[in-house]
């Protein structure tokens, strides 16, 4: 089973638009929305929820004020400033480490479960989908991303799918790391802006750090063709394939308003520029598919080799 | 006054609003809290200097003292310690630096050392704006720790503008906590609107007064305006869906510099925020 993630570093470059389009082009895939704290994929794919579970991340400390003697040990040892003057615990600050339970001489602190989100198993018009909703301001979004990925794997096994397409979060932190580690390929969607280049470099460093092959696609390339050229040069120099360029076009917003992928929307459009946009997306997907097939063949080749050696 | 610029969805224009607002005001500090992907300085061109390393206290295990009682590995909620038959292994990237293992170890076989997570940098003396940013090292996950350290440089006597990261998770909470006001930047598209409502949930839960800036105004439909009207949320500013603004952004130019009429508009937005806050204060008294 292959896993493929779309990331960007910078937010709002078109990850979800492209991932949804890929979902409508892939023949045998599971879709995973791993941008758990601003999940938008469901607005296009309109999943029917089959199963839903509460997700418990890290625990939260509770102080029993009946037992508390206000000695202040918990406040002194808490490195997250989560215990206030009245010995209340700020759930937004508490990281669930449980140090307070160890230092309290009265045994007044206990750790309680906290529901920090929900995970969903769903069905869409393009196949099964795993997704989630993170509770407001919750910790452990990375852990929730991992939960969505393991649910996507389960769905892929049950439904005999050979590919998981992952919509990743922006940034380079815990969610982005959880969405990319152990995948077979990442696509970085970049816009030709000074921030775009900067964030692209950081996210490519992240991919290199975890040794995941990366490819790039430039969105709104015509907003600054000079910068587009710089990005292409940078990628050529570093040996990272640029799979395509997409022009500045309102089709993404229009398709979104119709709850359609850009591919679906273009199928009913008589405008040449919108059809051309969809064709470019198809070309990018064809190259991704080819790369994933090659990787899969290599992996299988290695397996056969290993068996022969046995 | 401390104003955070946030949004649920990424790429809606947080950095644009932060920069243009900071440039329109005087006696102001600008903080880039998007420490995973900080972009403000790309538009300012300042020379930056390091003012602090952000570190996490991590355990160092003295194997000769350790009798592998497993108390530390059993305690660690982040699975950063694993007791093998012959030794205890430590995985630095999982550690949150809570210090629990050091406190617990009955053999006093654990001491703490510091592991770098990122840096805090500031614009050198003589720059036209007091600017600070945090930068998280690649491969690190402790985003909030860098943000919290960065916020120590807020000077209460000045106006502070904080460019927050996207999303609604802990890095956003770490950024907007303790702010006097929060500006939510959105666009009136289905994605923008959906994520705006998540962001509204966050600021309401944290009891921070807020208003909305609609960016790329004209794109999409009118759902954000209708929602704000129905909810009584002030719309502070509308920035048109203007290709010129997008092109200036792509070149790293804050658009107030090329379109000076916007200076007034950002100043007006600041006045509207002050008015909203005084109104709230008066209502309370």
What report would you give on this structure?
The complex is a heterodimer of chains A (310) and B (285). Chain A has 310 residues and is α/β, with parallel strands linked by helices. Chain A has two domains: 2-56 and 117-309, Rossmann fold (3-Layer(aba) Sandwich); 59-113, Alpha-Beta Plaits (2-Layer Sandwich), CATH 3.30.70.20. Chain A is built from eleven helices and eleven strands. Chain A has helices at 15-25, 42-45, 73-77, 99-103, 141-158, 174-180, 194-209, 225-238, 251-257, 262-267, 272-309, and strands at residues 2-7, 29-33, 48-56, 60-63, 109-112, 115-124, 127-134, 163-167, 185-190, 214-218, 242-245. In chain A, the strands form two sheets. A nine-stranded mixed β-sheet of chain A has the order 3-6-7-2-8-1-9-10-11, sandwiched between helices. In chain A, strands 4-5 form a two-stranded antiparallel sheet. In chain A, helix 7 (194-209) links the parallel strand 9 (185-190) and strand 10. The radius of gyration of chain A is 23 Å and the shape is elongated. Chain B is α/β, with parallel strands linked by helices and 285 residues long. Chain B folds into two domains: 2-46 and 127-284, Rossmann fold, CATH 3.40.50; 55-116, Alpha-Beta Plaits (2-Layer Sandwich). In chain B, 36% of the residues lie in helices and 27% in strands. Chain B has eleven helices and eleven strands. Chain B has helices at residues 14-24, 40-44, 71-75, 100-104, 143-151, 170-176, 190-205, 223-231, 243-250, 255-258, 261-284, and strands spanning 2-6, 28-32, 48-61, 81-83, 88-90, 110-123, 130-136, 159-163, 181-186, 210-217, 235-240. In chain B, helix 1 crosses helix 11 and helix 5 (143-151) runs parallel beside helix 6. Chain B starts with a strand and ends with a helix. The mean pLDDT of chain B is 95. At the A-B interface, helix 4, helix 6, helix 7 and helix 9 of A face helix 4, helix 6, helix 7 and helix 9 of B.
């Amino acid at each position: 089973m292959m896993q493929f993630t779309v990331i960007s570093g910078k937010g709002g470059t078109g990850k979800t638009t492209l991932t949804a389009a890929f979902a409508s082009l892939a023949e045998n895939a599971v879709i995973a929305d791993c941008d758990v704290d601003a999940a938008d994929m469901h607005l296009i794919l309109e999943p029917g929820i089959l199963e839903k579970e509460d997700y418990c991340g890290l625990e939260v400390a509770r102080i029993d004020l009946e037992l508390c003697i206000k000695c202040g040990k918990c406040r002194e040892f808490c490195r997250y400033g989560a215990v206030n003057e009245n010995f209340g615990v700020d759930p937004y600050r508490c990281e669930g480490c449980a140090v307070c339970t160890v230092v309290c001489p009265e045994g007044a602190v206990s750790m309680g479960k906290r529901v920090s989100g929900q995970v969903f198993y769903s069905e869409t018009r393009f196949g099964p989908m795993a997704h989630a909703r993170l509770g407001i301001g919750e910790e452990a979004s990375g852990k929730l991303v991992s939960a969505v990925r393991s649910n996507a794997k389960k769905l892929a096994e049950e439904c005999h799918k050979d590919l998981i397409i992952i919509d990743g979060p922006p940034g380079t932190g815990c969610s982005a790391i959880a969405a990319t580690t152990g995948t077979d390929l990442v696509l970085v969607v970049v816009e030709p802006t000074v921030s775009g280049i900067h964030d692209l470099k950081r996210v490519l460093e992240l991919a290199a750090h975890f040794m995941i092959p990366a490819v790039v696609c430039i969105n709104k390339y015509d907003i600054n063709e000079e910068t587009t050229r710089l990005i292409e040069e940078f990628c050529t120099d570093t040996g990272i394939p640029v799979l395509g360029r997409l022009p500045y076009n309102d089709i993404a917003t229009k398709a979104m308003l119709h709850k359609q992928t850009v591919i679906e929307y273009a199928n009913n459009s008589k405008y040449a520029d919108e059809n051309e946009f969809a064709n470019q997306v198809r070309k990018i997907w064809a190259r991704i598919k080819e790369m994933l097939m090659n990787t899969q063949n290599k992996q299988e080749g290695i397996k056969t080799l290993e068996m022969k050696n046995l | 006054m401390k104003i955070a610029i946030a949004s649920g969805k990424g790429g809606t224009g947080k950095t644009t609003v932060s920069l243009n607002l900071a440039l329109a005001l005087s006696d102001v500090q600008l903080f880039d809290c998007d420490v995973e992907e900080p972009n403000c300085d790309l538009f300012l061109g300042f020379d930056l200097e390091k003012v602090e390393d952000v570190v996490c206290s991590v355990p160092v295990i003295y194997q000769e003292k350790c009798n592998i009682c497993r108390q530390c590995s059993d305690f660690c909620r982040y699975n950063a310690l694993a007791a093998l038959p012959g030794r205890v292994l430590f995985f630095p990237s999982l550690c949150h630096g809570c210090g629990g293992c050091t406190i617990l170890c009955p053999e006093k076989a654990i001491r703490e050392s510091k592991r770098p997570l990122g840096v805090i940098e500031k614009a050198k003396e003589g720059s036209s704006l007091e600017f600070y940013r945090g930068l998280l090292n690649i491969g690190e996950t402790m985003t909030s720790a860098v943000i919290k350290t960065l916020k120590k440089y807020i000077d209460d006597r000045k106006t502070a503008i904080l460019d927050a990261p996207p999303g609604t998770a802990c890095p956003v909470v770490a950024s907007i906590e303790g702010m006097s006001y929060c500006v939510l930047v959105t666009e009136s598209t289905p994605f923008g609107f959906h994520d705006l409502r998540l962001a509204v949930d966050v600021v309401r839960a944290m009891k921070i007064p807020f208003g909305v800036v609609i960016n790329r105004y004209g794109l999409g439909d009118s759902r954000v305006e209708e929602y704000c009207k129905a909810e009584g949320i002030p719309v502070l500013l509308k920035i048109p869906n203007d290709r010129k603004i997008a092109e200036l952004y792509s070149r790293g130019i804050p658009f107030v510099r090329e379109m000076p009429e916007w200076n007034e508009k950002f100043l007006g937005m600041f006045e509207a925020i002050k008015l909203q806050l005084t109104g709230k204060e008066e209502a309370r008294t």
